[in-house]
Design goal:
This protein is α/β, with parallel strands linked by helices. 36% of the residues lie in helices and 18% in strands. The protein is built from eight helices and eight strands, in the order E-H-H-E-H-E-H-E-H-H-H-E-H-E-E-E. It has a six-stranded mixed beta sheet with strand order 4-3-5-1-6-7. It has a two-stranded antiparallel ribbon with strand order 2-8. A hairpin with a 5-residue loop joins strand 6 and strand 7. Helix 5 crosses helix 6. It is globular and about 50 Å long.
């Protein structure tokens, strides 16, 4: 078994106004860059092998933290298809009850032209399994949708109702990955350290 620490990227302009980003390649905002730059990883995590989503908001976060990650396509955010660039309020106004019914599908919510959280899990599982074969503790800078998909795997959570653990998106989330490639939550909300 290995340990895997997950960190969400810093804030973007779209985060600030509640727009779904998905595969849209939005950079860190000035505020997001500044927030990331104030912190560093706890020392015990710095020596790990680090991976990163290919999207620039994740890559920029890794760079600001002083990491030289391996780019891993499996870590890209969920594809929100036709929903990308819109707020939830805009989608509710545009699609009405159809949007609410889609939300109520939990793991099987699938935006038109996009992917479901269950499909995100399916693309993550081979990568998680490959980490166990390498046998080294790892870290990854990724996205909220990816971390939620892994959390759902860890708890068999159908993504309906409240999540099993409330995650602070500014913190590290530590999982153990079994030899079969399944995640188990070890510790939630491990804070980054302020720079001296």
């Amino acid at each position: 078994m290995i340990r895997l620490a997950l960190l969400r990227h810093g804030a973007t302009e779209w985060n600030a106004v509640g727009r779904l980003q998905g595969h849209t390649d939005i950079p860190l905002s000035a505020v997001g860059h500044e927030q990331v730059a104030r912190n560093r990883l706890p020392q015990t995590y710095g020596a790990r092998v680090w991976y990163c989503s290919p999207l620039q908001r994740a890559c920029q976060t890794a760079t600001v933290l002083g990491l030289r990650p391996v780019i891993e396509p499996a870590l890209i955010e969920m594809n929100w298809g036709d929903y990308e660039g819109h707020t939830i309020a805009e989608l509710q106004a545009k699609y009405g009850p159809t949007f609410t019914a889609n939300e109520d599908r939990g793991l099987d919510l699938q935006p038109p032209g996009g992917e479901s959280p269950r499909q995100v899990q399916a693309r993550l599982l081979p990568w998680l399994k490959s980490l166990t074969a390498m046998g080294e503790d790892a870290g990854a800078v990724t996205h909220k949708g990816v971390i939620r998909a892994i959390l759902a795997l860890a708890f068999d959570w159908p993504m309906l109702g409240k999540p099993p653990v409330k995650l602070d998106w500014r913190c590290l989330q530590e999982f153990r990955i079994t030899d079969a490639g399944r995640p188990e939550l070890l510790a939630a909300n491990i804070p980054l350290e302020p720079k001296a």
